[in-house]
Design brief:
mainly alpha; elongated; Serine Threonine Protein Phosphatase 5, Tetratricopeptide repeat
């Protein structure tokens, strides 16, 4: 798993492109990637064509030294020798080198045709790793032309193949390309997660240069407005506008929205401040529906942070406001109802369902019955919350089959409601139960789906928990140790940024134990 000299060079120069986006670094990045792709022979290659290998090495050297005519000639001769010998994999490698050299010398479309020949040779040879290297090179070509969607697709295909072949250093290199493409497409949160994976791989490989590159790349990324920042800007504008215009309700709604955002972003201190501000404004206005929603949001956050007592208090305060909220005839109440998510009865049912998660099974069942009377079947958000809560009861009662069915139903309902956070929580619980039953091959893809759901919801707490669970599952198998190590390290970083020091330390220690 050592990075060779060319791989280090490629990593550093491609990262320079990630940081700069254009210019001289782009040329260097392409040059280093060309060396990496052209010179690395497949593992176990017998070297049965020494003259062709010698020509290929000479071509690489000439290309590196700027002797373009000699490089081109040597690549062409190597291609011919491999073709005459019937060595498809060798032919693919020589064509890959020729194509990348052609691209670097400014003939992009000519290079594209040669890449197609390399791809065909690798396909006929059954050389999946060679195909991945062509995908990587083509992605670089698309990135140089700012065809960002095509570049992203190519880098992702390359990264997946490198991972499948345990070529971790190459995967990290492709991940930097993915992150840059995501940045260009405005997918800043996703790009951050991509860099985190590259950083973890470099750390495991003890590649300090790669770690530095990943850190610098992330520092640069953080200067961009991400999806959360864009929402923050809008909500801040709404709050300030409402304050200047004298609309206390709109000001409270803005604070409530900001609180939800900061909960998902993993900033509990800021979230509490915004949610409490919203709650106090709603209380001053005597708008119980809004106050109920603020208490419910506080309860959800505290429960997920493991602060059970605080969560219960918040939920019970929300429940106590229901009758007043239900019977509020005010104009402000009608205006708030137009922007609230669901009817007040549905929201109360969801609060009862989440509060039941803190109850003993018998009390929880009664609370869920009360919730169902408020919202008959057919409302996906409520159906998901109730299915999840009942699955928890079944789990605690030692009926795992019923619990698994409940978790699956909850995830399906939340998907229907387009609530990725709820779906992520249901998938996380489902995966956890499969892990308890030692169904590792079933649990792993569920954790993967949970991670995707939490990232879609931009929910850091759930992402950290799902990554930690996935790592635990992968660590059970002899072939998943590296991936488990990666996931533990990403989880550690997430928990650290959330201020969950003990959970971060647990993740770090688990990763180190795998060595």
């Amino acid at each position: 798993m050592r990075l060779n000299r060319l791989c280090v060079a490629a990593t550093l120069t491609v990262a320079a492109l990630v940081l700069s986006g254009c210019g001289k670094e782009e040329q260097q990045a392409e040059d280093a990637a060309a060396q990496l792709n052209a010179t690395a022979a497949p593992k176990g290659a017998p070297g049965a064509n020494p003259r062709a290998e010698q020509l290929l090495a000479q071509a690489d050297t000439a290309a590196n030294q700027g002797r373009d005519a000699q490089a081109h000639d040597a690549y062409e001769r190597a291609v011919a020798l491999y073709r005459d010998a019937g060595d498809l994999a060798g032919q693919g490698r020589a064509l890959l080198g020729l194509a990348t050299h052609t691209r670097i010398t400014g003939q992009g479309e000519v290079a594209r045709d040669i890449y197609a020949r390399a791809q065909a040779a690798f396909e006929r040879a059954g050389d999946e790793l060679g195909e991945a290297k062509v995908a990587f090179a083509l992605a670089e070509l698309e990135r140089a032309r700012f065809n960002n969607d095509a570049a992203l697709t190519g880098f992702q295909a390359a990264a997946d193949a490198f991972r499948a072949h345990a070529e971790w250093a190459l995967e990290a290199l492709a991940l930097l390309g993915i992150a840059d493409s995501e940045r260009r497409l405005g997918q800043i949160v996703t790009a951050d997660a991509t860099i985190a994976r590259a950083r973890a791989i470099f750390e495991i490989l003890n590649d300090r240069a790669g770690q530095l590159v990943a850190d610098r790349t992330r520092e640069e990324l953080l200067t961009y407005v991400d999806e959360n920042d864009a929402a923050r800007l809008k909500l801040t504008y709404d709050i300030n506008y409402a304050d200047q215009g004298g609309s206390r309700r709109l000001e409270a709604q803005g604070n409530l929205g900001m609180g939800h955002l900061e909960v998902a972003a993993g900033h509990p201190v800021q979230a509490r401040r915004f949610l409490n501000e919203a709650r106090m404004i709603f209380a001053e206005m005597k708008l119980p529906a809004g106050e109920q929603d603020a208490w419910a949001a506080l309860g959800n956050m505290e429960r997920r942070l493991g602060r059970t007592s605080e969560a219960r208090d918040a939920y019970e305060r929300a429940v106590a406001l229901f009758e007043r909220a239900r019977n509020d005839p005010s104009t402000e109440a009608r205006a708030y109802a137009e922007v609230a998510v669901g009817e007040v009865e549905e929201r109360q049912a969801i609060v009862l369902a989440t509060l039941s998660l803190l109850d003993a099974p018998a009390d929880a069942a009664k609370r869920l019955d009360a919730a169902r009377t408020l919202a008959p079947p057919g409302t996906p958000a409520v159906d998901g919350a109730l299915a999840f809560a009942r699955a928890e009861i079944e789990h605690k009662a030692g009926r795992p089959d019923a619990a698994l069915a409940g978790y699956a139903a909850a995830a399906e309902a939340f998907d229907l409601a387009e609530l990725p956070l709820g779906a992520g929580q249901a998938l996380l619980a489902h995966a956890g139960l499969e892990r308890e039953r030692e169904n590792w091959t079933v649990a792993a893809p569920l954790y993967d789906r949970a991670i995707d759901a939490f990232i879609a919801a931009r929910d850091r707490i759930g992402e950290g928990e799902a990554r930690f669970g996935l790592a635990q599952v992968l660590a059970r198998g002899s072939t998943g140790t590296m991936e488990a190590n990666v996931q533990y390290r990403i989880a550690a970083r997430v928990f650290d940024e959330l201020g969950l020091v003990e959970r971060s330390a647990t993740s770090v220690n688990a990763a180190r134990a795998l060595r």
